Amino acid sequence: MSSEPPQRTRQAMRRGPGAIIGVGIIGVVFLAALVGIIHTPFDPIEINADNRLSAPSLQHWLGTDEWGRDITSRLLAGAVVSVTIGLLTSLLATASGTLIGAAAGYLGGWLDRIVIAVMDALLAFPSLIMALGIVAVFSGSQWAVVAALSFSYMPSVVRVVRASVLTIRRKDFVDASTVMGNSRGFTLGRHILPNTVGMVIVLATSLFGWALLAESALSFLGLGVPPPAPSWGGMLADSRNYFEEAPWLALAPGLTISLTLLGINLLGDALRDFFDPRNRNL
Amino acid sequence: MSAPDIAPLLDVERLVVTISRHGKAVHNVVEAVSFTVPAGGVLALVGESGSGKTMIGRSILSLLPAAASVTAGSIKLSGQSLIGLPPARLRKIRGGEVGMVFQEPMVSLNPALRIGVQMMEALQLHRGMDDKAARESCLEMLSRVGILDPRGSFAAYPIQFSGGMLQRIMLASVLAARPRLLIADEPTTALDAISRKQVMDLMVELTQEIGAAVLLISHDLGMVSQYAHQVVMLRNGRLIECGTPEAILLNPKHDYTRALVGALPSRVSNGVSPAVPAGNSLVQIHDLRIEYRQRRRLFSKPPAAHQAVSGVSMDIYRGETLAVVGESGSGKTTIGRALVRLLDTTAGRILFDGEDCASFNHERLAAFRRRTQMVFQDPYSSLDPRMRLGDIVAEGLRMQGGLSRAERRQRAADMLTEVSLPGDYLERFPHELSGGQRQRVCIARAIVGQPAFIVADEPVSALDVTVQHQVMTLLSRLQAKYGFTILFISHDLGIVEQIANRVMVMHRGRVMELGSRDDIYDRPCHPYTHRLLAATPRMARRAEGGYTLITADFWPVAPPGGCRWFDSSANTDAHARMVEIENGHWVCCTP
């Protein structure tokens, strides 16, 4: 048993460099967020009018923005905001969606019909529009953004989890569990939910990515994290007026967001493979 | 039967099919196999899974999967090599000169196209017919294969037909192009006994009519023996024996063939007297009715309920094996699931050990669950893929109470040994096991808590013949040791004959006949039982060694007292009742 993790890691590497790259990128992002909490080279918020739009230099590695703030510092501080929003949103949406979807799919009957009707109604709104509406009403903080995004992504999680529970609950091992005398709750927790894990993880990681993008979009529309607090989306949004004079303003947060999304997707695939018993002991 | 003596139509010589991965040859799935099929002859390739029989069939039409390729040998159709043909020439041969029928009729027809469109396609392509001629020819062929309403069927979609009907339609559309060779890959494996026989009879008759030869690919030596002129036995890609079916059954030369022939269902004494130990019932069923009701939709009439089980009464005696046989849709699985309370009953009573199952409270139900278990048909879906085998088996003890985790582990380990799986399998996952091994785990899980009653729903129908035999032997051995009662659900009368003390024949939700094994097999009364027996090839061991094929040729005899036999077409007759014609032998009839 003790030799298992290294063996599995070796297998992960043999399947291709994707997993390693994914873990690497996400590791760097989380590290940046940690650094951003403890220390940034310059104050990410204080305005410095003498230093507006300076190009990347030894002092300001990625240049400064229109208020003379150091881009590197703002990216690090923004990492805290973006990672918090992405992580919390994907956790909240996945947890609530899995709970509701699994209950609806497994218990069926009127509960299922009501849940599905409500979720379909919610899905009819584009999630960004719904988030916009919620943020507009409860504006003012990143927590509002997290709540709004979680709520608008939850219906998709419900649908996916419910569909997969519907397939799994028709398998004979679920009947076998009933015949053994196991309660419905035990069957759900022991046999059905674990078999949705691979799919839920992929979904959760892509939600992280969507939340990151949506936060950028909300900031772009001025409804995200309120200024002057830095966020990657907000930085990208602010850069659009200076694209010709200072392209680094757009490039730095834009590339950061793209790379993070790539890392998240690679990590999701790797996690799915890792949790699939079919990839063990081979 | 002897093969017509003509020059070979299909000549396969020293064929080698190799699987390669990343451009490197991994292993040969077919190893230097040679055989010939004469024009109009029927040759059967027989083997278990992994024997390479399907690969040979597919290589003839260059339908091999991407990883496999023919690396040596030759395949000739009327002297012309079929290997490396240009695509245009190959397309002419596929469907035109060589037709192919697959195992799953449900997936070999396109569900989005009407039957007629799919049938006419081949005729227009290969025989250059215009719409009208093709249509006429198809309609003629459909009525020829016994489709009652050819015109209606022509415009229908595949989903509107049963598996047996679809396989007939497949045959009609493949044979309408008048091929010279028909490759039939397990054409009846997905069908139940009666449609299996009908489709096979039809296939042989039609191919004789148009003079086509048949390459029959099957795992079922018994079935094949009735139709083939020549049998080629394959194992692990090698030809191990070939000859006429009579010769192979009578005097198998190779060890493996002998094992396979020995594993064929045949009457064996199972040590338990078929006499009925009356008065000691474990389960009593009174007038059981089970209906399936579709969900009522808004603004529509309530849909009619489908009666899956209508008015079944019977007793299951302690320690016996009662087999329930019947076609698909006969309600046999429904009864089994109702007995372990996976389904709710609509009316009637089920008494388990004298207690009415409907009156169970939470506690009584838990006690009931400890004493009843089920073994499922599909070993690939009955084990949780995320759990290790040790945990799977130990879970069967979870509700027994009074056992520590370690004790449960230990009992699970003992049980795995008992079903002849190595001890280190405790830590394995289901996907690492073969179908037969998985079914052993299912049996271990079911009996680890020492239940009194087990419902086994087609427990071996997904397995190879030799593996079937092993699993059945295991089940009998465990029953002798632990003394549980089995309700054995099966469509395969050959297997039932080996294990059952009593047999119940069901048809469309009703019991047709119920009696001891010998009553049913030697003195069957109901016409439906006769049809079932006639559709099942069975083997009889000969005193001088080897086996011969029994083809049942009984005719119903009227029971004392006389009654009009309950005809299967008039099955909804409400006056039907069970009559005891001799001790413990019940037959359904109308007064």
How is this structure best described in words?
- The complex is a heterodimer of chains A (282) and B (591).
- Chain A is an all-alpha fold.
- Chain A has a single domain, classed as MetI-like fold (Orthogonal Bundle).
- Helix content of chain A is 70%, strand content 0%.
- Chain A is built from eleven helices and no strands.
- In chain A, α2 (18-38) packs across α11 (248-275), α3 (71-107) runs antiparallel to α4 and α9 runs antiparallel to α11.
- Chain A is elongated.
- The model of chain A is unreliable at 1-6 (pLDDT under 50).
- Chain B is globular, with a radius of gyration of 26 Å.
- Chain B has a domain at 281-293 and 302-525: Rossmann fold (3-Layer(aba) Sandwich).
- In chain B, strands 13, 16, 17, 18, 19, 20, 23, 24 and 25 form a nine-stranded mixed sheet that branches.
- In chain B, α17 links the parallel β17 (453-457) and β18.
- In chain B, α16 (435-447) runs parallel beside α17 (465-482).
- The two termini of chain B are 44 Å apart.
- Chain B is α/β, with parallel strands linked by helices.
- Classes of the chains: A mainly alpha (282), B alpha/beta (591).
- The A-B interface holds A 171-173, 175-182, 190-191, 194-195, 197, 277-278, 280-281 and B 337, 340, 342, 365-366, 369-370, 372-374, 376-378, 381-387, 395-396, 398-399, 428-429, 431-432, 442, 445, 449.
Chain pair sharing the greatest interface: A-B, 20 and 31 residues
What is the CATH-assigned architecture of the domain at 281-293 and 302-525 in chain B? 3-Layer(aba) Sandwich
Radius of gyration of chain A: 22 Å
State the distance separating the first and last CA atoms of chain B. 44 Å
Mean pLDDT value of chain B: 84
Shape of chain B from CA axes? globular
Query: Care to count the β-strands of chain B?
Result: 25
CATH class of the domain at 281-293 and 302-525 in chain B: Alpha Beta
Helix content of chain A: over 70%
Number of helices, where a helix is a run of at least 4 consecutive DSSP H or I residues of chain B: 20
What kind of sheet is the major sheet of chain B? Answer: 9 strands, mixed
Separation of the first and last Cα atoms of chain A: 14 Å
Oligomer: heterodimer
Total helical elements of chain A: 11
Low-confidence stretches of chain B: 559-571
Q: What general outline of chain A do the C-alpha atoms trace?
A: elongated
Helix content of chain B: 25-40%
Domains of chain A, number: 1
CATH architecture of chain A: Orthogonal Bundle
